[in-house]
Amino acid sequence: LQEAVFSLVAWNGNEITHKKFIMLFRKADSQEEKLRFLGAMCSFKQKKLLLKTLNFTLGPDVRSQNIQLPIMRITSNIYGKEFMWPWLKNNWKKIIKKAGIGNPLLKRVVDSIGHVVDSKQEKDVRKFFKNNPVRGTEMTLEQTLERVRIHSKFLISLKKEFA
């Protein structure tokens, strides 16, 4: 229940709320508690605060095995959709460095890209991963791009049906 309450507080929060969550994260006694605060920091509406959360994730306070959580959560946040793909591309080397080459959790990061790109961006995504390959994520990338194409076709058919 705490995580739901924290997320609601963040949804209605501001910069002061974000600073408080970071302080609570740092003071938390358990990893479970830290993850609740980290998850809540992904629920803000303000782009600036979501970007602060992502940058905090890349810092020393967040364990490498938890790096995918904020990325996945913010790609699911409607206010994170517009900037997540550019942010991922710009910070990919930092993400790989922190997560470690071959980390299976990177599959989740690649999978989450499907929430923030559309079929028009498929070439950009393919080109990016061709230039920045991550061993073990090839199938995940193909499945993600297939879902993006299916979703785009579905939206087109809905628009035609209700136009």
Backbone shape: globular
User: Which range does the strand content fall in?
Assistant: under 5%
Order of helices and strands: HHHHHHHHH
The overall pLDDT average reads 92
**Rg:** 17 Å
Total count of strands: 0
Share in helix: over 70%
Biggest pleated sheet: none
Query: Uncertain spans, ≥5 residues at pLDDT below 50?
Result: none
> Count the helices. How many?
9
Task: Give the N-to-C terminal Cα separation.
Answer: 42 Å
The computed structural class is mainly alpha
Describe the structure.
With 163 residues, the chain is mainly alpha-helical. Helix content is 71%, strand content 0%. It contains nine helices and no strands.
Summarize the structure.
The protein has helices at residues 2-11, 15-27, 31-40, 47-58, 68-76, 81-99, 106-112, 122-131, 138-162. The protein has 163 residues and is an all-alpha fold.
Question: What are the SSEs and their pairings?
Answer:
Elements: H1 2-11, H2 15-27, H3 31-40, H4 47-58, H5 68-76, H6 81-99, H7 106-112, H8 122-131, H9 138-162
Using brief descriptors, characterize the structure shown.
163 residues, 9 helices
